[in-house]
Design a protein that fits this description.
Elements: H1 2-16, H2 21-36, H3 45-57, H4 60-71, H5 90-105, H6 119-126, H7 131-140, H8 142-154, H9 161-169, H10 177-184, H11 192-201, H12 211-217, H13 219-225
Helix pairs in contact: 1-2, 1-6, 2-3, 8-9, 8-10
């Protein structure tokens, strides 16, 4: 079961990341991994599989444009976890350092352009961890996952199925309910007018006290600019996963 869970976590990570030709090619393997993934009955397995089939038949450029519009404009649905906790405060820099230390201690190496709090990257990391660690990490970010699920559902985004699945894995899917009413009245922050307003309100910073601070200033813009340079695996990598106890509700 540990290997099936690792494959499933990797598949969820890939679906949540920027869609490219490599993903389309790997969709049969992604779907097989989700189908075999140990999940509780409450998890949206069938909607995930239906989404895989839809992606396979969709125009790739349209899928990419929709992804950029949803995740690279505005902050409400950012996949950078610390954006929802620390915003652009200095606390975010220390949180990045602490998370990097966790990765390094586990022998997980990041690429040059990868930010440690990017949710797809965290899921890849979790695919290398024992089941009890996966449950612990999901539990620690459950409030962010619940808010993200509610916001993506509001936009009829298939990506909402990923954080919802994670919540189901620890029996916390009901926490999304607490955010749906709040989210229903939130103004969109990814429209041209909203983006222009942010640019007008935020002061321009011409220096940074550290390389880390510099990276944080332009995290979202940097990710958008480097889309064409990112290299994704042609298939789902299957890390070695040590034997472990099971996540609650998945046995």
């Amino acid at each position: 079961m540990a290997d099936a869970l690792a494959r499933g976590m990797r598949a969820l990570a890939r679906l949540l990341d920027y869609p490219d030709a490599a993903l389309i090619e790997a969709l049969p393997e992604v779907g097989a991994a989700i189908e075999a993934m140990p999940l509780p009955a409450t998890a949206p397995r069938q909607p995930l599989l239906a989404w895989c089939r839809q992606l396979a038949s969709s125009d790739l450029l349209d899928s990419q444009a929709a992804y950029v519009a949803q995740f690279d404009r505005g902050r409400a649905t950012s996949l950078l976890l610390f954006e929802h906790v620390h915003g652009e405060s200095r606390d975010r820099g220390q949180a990045m350092v602490d998370l990097l230390a966790e990765y390094e201690a586990a022998g997980f190496v990041l690429g040059e352009r990868e930010l440690p709090d990017h949710l797809p990257l965290l899921l890849e990391f979790l695919s290398t961890r024992p089941e009890e660690d996966i449950a612990r990490w999901i539990g620690e970010i459950r409030h962010i996952l619940a808010l993200l699920t509610a916001r993506l559902e509001k936009h009829d985004c298939h990506q909402s199925l990923i954080p919802l699945t994670l919540l189901c894995m620890i029996g916390a899917e009901a926490e999304v309910d607490a955010h749906r009413e709040q989210v229903s009245s939130e103004p969109a922050d990814n429209t041209p007018a909203a983006i222009d307003a942010v640019w007008e309100e935020e002061a321009v910073r011409f220096s940074a006290e550290s390389d880390q601070d510099c990276a944080l200033q332009s995290a979202e813009g940097k990710r958008l600019a480097e889309r064409s340079q990112q290299v994704h695996p042609e298939t789902i990598r299957l890390p070695d996963v040590p034997p472990s106890t099971s996540i609650g509700g998945l046995s």
